[in-house]
Amino acid sequence: MTSGRAVGRYAGRLLATFTVMSTALPPYRPTAAAAQTDPRLVAAVHEAQEGQGDSARASVQALLDSTPTTDSLYPEILYTQAMVAGSAGDMRRQLQRVVVEYSASSWADDALLRLVQMDYATHNLDGAAHNLERLRLDYSGSPLMPQASYWAARTYFDQNNPALACRWLAEGMAQARQNIELQNQLAYLNQRCRSLPDTAVANAGGQTDSAKAKKDSVSPAPADSAGRAARFRVQVAAVATSDAADATASKLRAIGFAVTTVREKKLYKVRAGQFATRAEAQSAAARIKAKLGGSPFVVSGP
Question: Are 256 and 157 within one domain?
Answer without folding.
Answer: no
